Amino acid sequence: MMNFDYSRATSLEEAATLARHPGAMLLAGGTTLLDLAKCEVARPERVIDLTRLPGLNTITVGESGATIGALATMSRVADDHGIQRRYPAIAESLLLAASAQLRNMATIGGNLLQRTRCPYFRDPAGYPACNKRDPGTGCSAIGGITRDHAVLGTSDHCIAVYPGDLAVALSALGATIQTNLRAIEIEAFFLMPGATPERETVLERGEIITAIAVPATPLAANSTYLKVRDRQSYEFAAASAAVGLELDSDGVTIRDIRVALGGIATKPWRAIAVEDALRGRRLDEGTVREASRTAVDGAKSHGGNAYKIELAPCVVARAILKAGGIQ
Amino acid sequence: MASVRPVKLDINGKEKTLSLEPRVTLLDALREHLHMTGTKKGCDQGQCGACTVHVDGQRVLACLTLAVQSEGSAITTIEGLAGPDGTPHPVQQAFIEEDAFQCGYCTPGQIMSAVACIREGRAGSDDEIREFMAGNLCRCGAYPNIVSAVRKAAEATA
Q1: Domains in chain A, ordered, with CATH?
Q2: Cβ atoms of residues A151 and A301 within 8 Å
Q3: Contact A149, A118 (CB under 8 A)
Q4: Are A154 and A266 in contact (CB under 8 A)?
Q5: Selected residue of B25, B66, B126, B127 to mutate for chain A interface (largest A Cβ count, 10 A)
Q6: In what order do the strands lie in the sheet with A24-27?
Q7: CA distances (Å), A272 to each of A152, A169, A219, A259, A278, in order?
Q8: Which domains occur in chain B, in start order?
Q9: Does the structure show a pLDDT above 80 at A124?
Q10: Taking a C-beta distance cutoff of 8 angstroms, is the pair B30, B36 a contact?
Q11: Within an 8 Å CB–CB cutoff, is residue A71 touching chain B?
């Protein structure tokens, strides 16, 4: 790990000013930044420690919605009874991610900004070509081993998967990311790689996530997160789905539904086609399975990841049926 | 560029002042600067759990924590677990009784993780223990005995 200067920010304004310097990087839980600094993927000249900033780790769950401070740790949010009751998909997505130790360290704001696990991205010495890490150098994954790479939202420049779970749940629940400058709907927050895979979110230099706001809706209260992976625990998703489901008073007609996928795309992937195909329809297994096929509309295989195109609709269907109490 | 700075750490109830570059992790501060080698360096990238310590009572990975970030926090390592007279902590005793290790390299991390796991109330069944101890890898594969030790210690604490 290269050496760096260290500053402990005492106010958000100070942190933002320090973060505007080229070469400055923000430090919260450290689980991504220090990991990537050790691989020499991240080469910060100055690290701005945000962890002492006051008032940024509060969790508030009220009638109209929840606000989660950016410095709240994954474990605190997962253990919050209000979050568990009104936003089960959030609590589940956090508990199914990482390990207990990492969840005690990693913050909610940092969790959203975690970088891809693409092995080519993480290995500068072995694979000099990576457009995400070093723009313009090419992509080692395309034509390489692609079992864990994206089938949706890819470009000729990058096929790396967005690795997170929480952001998938937040996409399904229509969350808003609050920064020191503005509020950004989660749909607009993450960017697809296109020709600039190094740019993963709309955040500007010196912009700092301060909180996540989630609206209270009936479908948020009846939401779930399903994660399928190679190991039963402590593993990234092969495919995952977050579903929020609201039924009519008859208990079988779908009044509203929101679906997002993880582990298969370059960003948290909202499956609007599935939602549209199911809204107003009857909740039964055949209907759900047929609609879930549209989750992978436009998917492109790179060889090793072809299984994800088969797997993802099954995960979506199971998650919807689970939210509907059928499975 | 970055220079050495004084870093004051509270480790097992004792205050230590070190001169460290900002990039020094809590793990390297413990092992290389304080020569407290009970906390192990396994993968050094947050995947194996061998470096698990407690910071303000919470289990965390010392390899992904900067020492300077830990200023003002109470750090507990495996060396701080036994009683003042050297009596092993109940979890240490359970690991001995259940033969919950082979080479022993992951054991300090397993024990620190297990102490926290029990305190968190996440050791209620074998499945729960497996899930909430998943961040501690054992390459010898002593998992069945580790689960037994954690269950035994949890039952004794309950």
Answers
A1: 5-49 (3.30.43.10), 219-323 (3.30.390.50)
A2: yes
A3: yes
A4: yes
A5: B66
A6: A5-8, A46-49, A24-27
A7: 14, 14, 15, 7, 10
A8: 5-80 (3.10.20.30), 90-157 (1.10.150.120)
A9: yes
A10: yes
A11: no
Structure tokens at A140: 């080692």
Question: For an interface test with B, which of A49, A99, A123 has the most B Cβ atoms less than 10 Å from its Cβ?
Answer: A99
B39 touches chain A (CB under 8 A): no
- A243 backbone φψ class: left, alpha, beta (φ>0; ψ -120 to 50): beta
Residues 73-132, chain A, touching B (beta carbon < 8 A):
75, 98-102, 104-105
In this predicted model, what pLDDT tens digit does every residue of A147-195 receive, in sequence order?
999 999 999 999 999 999 999 999 999 999 999 999 999 999 999 999 9
Section B86-95 average pLDDT: 97
CA distance A115 to B139: 27
| Tokens of residue A233, six digits | 């625990």
Residue with tokens 């100070």: A14
Query: What is the SS3 string spanning chain A?
Result: CCCCEEEECCCHHHHHHHHCCCCEEEECCCCCHHHHHHCCCCCCCEEEECCCCCCCCCEEECCCEEEEECCCEHHHHHHCHHHHHHCHHHHHHHHCCCCHHHHHHCEHHHHHCCCCCCCCCCCCCCCCCECCCCCCCCECCCCCCCCCCCCECCCCCCCCCCCCCHHHHHHHCCCEEEECCCEEEHHHHECCCCCCCCCCECCCCCCCEEEEEEECCHHHHCEEEEEECCCCCCCCCCEEEEEEEEECCCCCEEEEEEEEEECCECCCEECHHHHHHHCCCECCHHHHHHHHHHHHCCCCCCCCCHHHHHHHHHHHHHHHHHHCCCC
The model's pLDDT over A55-114, given as tens digits with 9 standing for 90+, comes to: 999 999 999 999 999 999 999 999 999 999 999 999 999 999 999 999 999 999 999 999
**ipTM strictly over 0.85?**
yes
DSSP per position, B31-85 = IIIS--TTS--SSSSSSS-TTEEEETTEEEEGGGSBGGGGTTSEEE-GGGSS-TT
Q: What is the token pair recorded at A285?
A: 């297994």
Residue A146, CA atoms < 13 Å, CB-side half-sphere: 24
